[in-house]
Write a structure and sequence with these properties.
Structural class: mainly alpha
Number of helices: 15
Low-confidence stretches: 395-399
Shape: globular
Number of strands: 0
CATH architecture: Up-down Bundle
Mean pLDDT: 89
Order of helices and strands: HHHHHHHHHHHHHHH
CATH topology: Na+/H+ antiporter like fold
Helix content: over 70%
Distance between the termini: 33 Å
Oligomer: single chain
Length: about 400
């Protein structure tokens, strides 16, 4: 596992289990406890070696996270919300990235390319703790759907935008036509890769009722689609998303047996828990080693800009649908804005920055600062905000 030895892995899983129990007792978001634990582990005198590399995040962590979220999404409400979701993640991500990039260029003095990279990677949202909270309290299905689907698609769009910038940084041609062609290829290629891997595996799954085989085939669908897409330089996130949607919707129609379905869902729930636990502890470990002192004002500007950018990606789009059947209530808009936490994908992209970007080191440090702010400040204030907005329908205590 990319230099993550068995001892460290065991220790991290043990810590993750303790943190899960403690945070539930204290009614705190689990991710907050994990990042704090990661910081504490990194500060221990014997030091725990915790490598957070782009390869680890992209090839090991990201496929199960995207796939697990996608198999939960029901196709008919998803299809109904699609016009709204597509505008939120295309126009929305462009507005957010543009505001952040312009701000970092003019206010901090970063090069346009460095600022653009930062703008696009910080536009990727990862509201793990918000979605985990939705599962514990009674929240409207549409709100849950919007937050989860928007973050999934927006990760895909941010990753695609990042890939295009990498091409530009490497000296590629920059014309609207070439960028448009690249975009189309990356998006369609990702969707095709997902369908090409998940389709045949579902046909095979239809021939068995053994839940262990079904779990194995869905595992192949998650990683296989992602790796196939990345191999052909198309979007791995969109491939895993497509595979997950297929398994979660077509799969239940007969390919995956009724008896196997709970087992498949439990397995993926566990996989997501495992991966999130490791990611957030590793984030904490890296946070502890970053000396933000000289960059404090830059980080503060970046946090502000990312909040303004996120607002620009939610409110104007919501306004455009204000008179349609897809109107988003104001309270939902606030949740989408404040609940757009940053997480693993933003950091993986920051760590994957090309070496020729002059601000590379600063971008990584500042990205970690923005992620820390979103996990601690936004993550901890999310539930009180939802109570204030009256979005919790009768709170059920988590066991």
């Amino acid at each position: 596992m990319h230099h993550l030895d068995a001892w460290t892995l065991g220790l991290l899983l043990f810590v993750a289990s303790l943190v899960a129990m403690i945070t539930r007792r204290l009614k705190l978001p689990y991710s907050v406890g994990l990042v704090a634990a990661g910081i504490a582990l990194a500060l221990l005198p014997f030091g725990v070696e915790m490598p957070l590399t782009p390869e680890l995040v992209f090839t090991v962590f990201l496929p199960p996270l995207v796939f697990e979220a996608a198999i939960q999404i029901r196709w008919s409400p998803f299809r109904r919300e699609l016009p709204l979701l597509l505008l939120l993640v295309t126009l929305g991500v462009l507005l957010a990235a543009g505001i952040v990039a312009a701000g970092m260029h003019y206010l901090v003095g970063w090069s346009w390319l460095g600022a653009a990279f930062f703008g696009i990677l910080i536009a990727a949202t990862d509201p793990v703790s918000v979605i985990a909270m939705f599962k514990q309290i009674d929240v409207d299905d549409r709100l849950h759907m919007l937050v989860e689907s928007e973050s999934l698609l927006n990760d895909g769009v941010a990753a695609v935008g990042f890939a295009i910038l990498v091409g530009i940084a490497a000296g590629g041609a920059v014309t609207p036509v070439s960028i448009g062609g690249e975009l189309l290829l990356t998006v369609l290629g990702g969707i095709l890769a997902g369908a090409a891997v998940a389709g045949p595996l579902l046909l095979i799954a239809g021939r068995t009722t053994d839940h262990l085989v079904e779990i194995t085939l869905t595992t192949l669908a998650a990683w296989g689609s992602f790796l196939l897409a990345e191999h052909f330089h198309v979007s791995g996130v969109l491939a895993a998303l497509t595979a997950g949607l297929l398994v979660g919707n077509v799969g239940w129609m007969g390919s995956i047996s009724d008896s196997g379905r709970p087992a498949v869902l439990s397995f993926w729930e566990y996989a997501a828990f495992l991966v999130n636990s490791l990611i957030f502890i590793l984030i904490g470990g890296r946070e502890a080693n970053i000396s933000l002192g000289p960059l404090l004002s830059v980080a503060a500007i970046a946090v502000l800009l990312s909040l303004i950018g996120r607002a620009a990606s939610v409110y104007p789009v919501a306004l455009m649908f204000g008179r349609s059947s897809l109107r988003i209530p104001a309270a939902y808009q606030h949740v989408l804005w404040w609940g757009g936490l940053r997480g693993a994908l933003a950091l993986a992209l920051a760590l994957a920055l090309p070496a020729n970007i002059p601000e590379r080191g600063d971008i990584i440090s500042v990205a970690f600062a923005v992620v820390a702010f979103s996990i601690f400040v936004q993550g901890l204030t999310m539930e009180p905000l939802m109570r204030r907005l009256g979005l919790i329908r009768g709170s059920t205590e988590p066991a």
